[in-house]
Specification:
Helix content is 39%, strand content 18%. Helix 6 crosses helix 7 and helix 8 packs across helix 10. The protein binds adenosine-5'-diphosphate and magnesium ion. The site of adenosine-5'-diphosphate (ADP) has 16 residues, from helix 10. The site of adenosine-5'-diphosphate has 16 residues, from helix 10.
Amino acid sequence: MADIGTNPLEQSVQFLKGVGPARAELLAKLDIRTVGDLLFHFPRSYDDLTDVRPMDKIEAGALQTVQGEVVEIDGKELPDGRRITSVVISDPQGKCVAGIWFNSLLVVGKVRYGQQVAFSGKPKWYRDHWQMNHPRFQVLDDDEAKLEVVPVYPLTEGLRPEHLRASIRAALTKAADAVSENLPAPVRIKREYPAVSQALWHVHFPETVPQGLQGRRRFIYDEFLVLQVALAVRRRSVRDLQQAPRLVTTPAIDAHIRKLYPFRLTADQDRAVASIVKDLASDRPMQRLLQADVGAGKTAVAVYALLVAVANKHQAILMAPTEVLAQQHWQTLEQYLANSRVRRALLTGSLAPKERERTLNEIKAGEIDLVVGTQALIQDGVEFANLGLVVIDEQHKFGVTQRARVKKLGVDPHYLVMTATPIPRTIALSVFGDLDTSTIKQLPPGRQRVLTRWHDESQRERIYQRFREEMKKGRQGYIVCPLVDESETLDLTAATELYEILRAGTFKDFRVGLLHGRLSDDQKQQVMNDFRARNLDLLITTVVIEVGVDVPNATLMIIEHADRFGLSQLHQLRGRVTRGAVAGECYLFAGLTTEEARLRLRAICRTSDGFALAEEDARLRGLGEFFGTRQHGLGDLRFGDLLQDFELLDMARSDAIELVAADASLRQPEHAALRQAVLARYGHTLDLAAIG
Ligand code: ADP
Ligand code: MG
């Protein structure tokens, strides 16, 4: 095979000294094909063999190394058939440590009386002496022996660690200098990171454990910096290159809007409003994320923003993720705008073609100020005369790519994105690093936190009894069935069956309704209207009610098979019964379940703080799950962990902002490699024309 290509990083590992076809095949099982892959196959952890202890300084537990002369070699068979080998070493004072191996003949062949050897392992005190099980064993007179820091790599069957290390050493010698240095020198110096090739040596052959870890940190930071620079570039191009209308809030407008609320805004809401007012008054498009715990009042804030736009003679749209939620928002708006002349339209999939046609024409002609609809409907080619503000209620389906699509309306409006899943700050920074955020934490006054209890079947009758009593007093409730295996059919069966059983039995004296995803939008709307109008006492439902359904009189909830729901989802669901002045009650039914599910259920019963839960959720399920499949559109990180490495993420973010402020298009020579890295990684997902 010829040595093709000039970049040594892209060469096959087979070109390395000592790597033949057989080892190359083993490496391929670890997805290591090129020399570059090998360099970036990082150790999972390190074994520190440099902690050498005299025998009287040994401590139980942590990995330590002792040295001594072999004074005893013993092998015997245990009653259960296992072979046990014990080698005792002694120091000049006569203190001894025993190494024990089960079913291992390796050591027997190597060891001889009188040799100086080292054991590295975790000591424990056994009867009257220290003992190590399966210690790492080295003959000290060997040339090879080294008391060093040994990286522990992910391996595959048949691949010996020492062979992998030898291959990595060959790769480093050959190609470490060819790895491009993404970090501009000033940043690298400021953060005290080694140059890239040196960092690679440190990761694989560290002199000390901290040196190895610092080498790895450099690559985590590097990865974060690339992400944060991409976000900073995008943010700048949105801010600097786009022109949005100045939407000014005069005192008269402010007073007028506030008069529409039947309540006073909370301090958190006021703070969010103040930020939005400031953003809207600028000719740079607002890019703001409004996050709030369930029911904390973000829709009320969004209404303020919408009305500022309308007062400035611009059109505004409110986009919801589902038809049910669009309806809900529409009704909310109708309440606020009961006595107002704002010209408004609800754009739903159930509009007759003619009506739809007329509405679209009115929007285009500027005869409608305020449009509510689903994202699908509005993205689907609606033309606006004079669009000033887009409010996107993503509930917990957020994502940067979605926002990118909305932009193609051909205007540069202000953006406000609402999310009902509180996002841990660290994640907000990284994924929404190009958004400003406003957070509403307090609930409106008088609002009660929901009481949440986890029960098994033995309590079911008692809970049903409680429902009957409360419903007799006029309260309403939900029973939520899970989505089974993501199959809509099963989902439907579960809810339908339960509905039939309860309606004919336990709740035969009450008016019971059924709501699930297979109903048409009209049917869903009808059921919701009946429930809202109190023509129904109890609603058997699936997760369709998870998003934003808002019926203050409904304060009771049962969640069936609660162990099948994620934490954020459970929190969203119970948020449905925190709307009224009476404290909500949420009963989780789940039988025997996994340890992970138990942790989730305990967490949800323990805390009602959506932010704490979101953080817990991300930790329990991993970030990929938390965001849904590739929903955030930024792909996975290779080295960094957004939760664990948040300090590095913070550092990278502030460095990125500084860097892009000084060199917006990354044209300075010392930014060339970084620019390349940013484009290679995010050029497809983010609009990075400014540096392309
Ligand atoms: P979110 O959109 O965050 O779920 P909403 O804006 O829909 O919250 O508000 C939830 C409920 O609380 C609504 O019924 C709303 O009328 C009410 N609400 C909102 N803000 C306040 C407030 N400051 N004081 C009293 N009630 C409020
Ligand atoms: Mg709402």
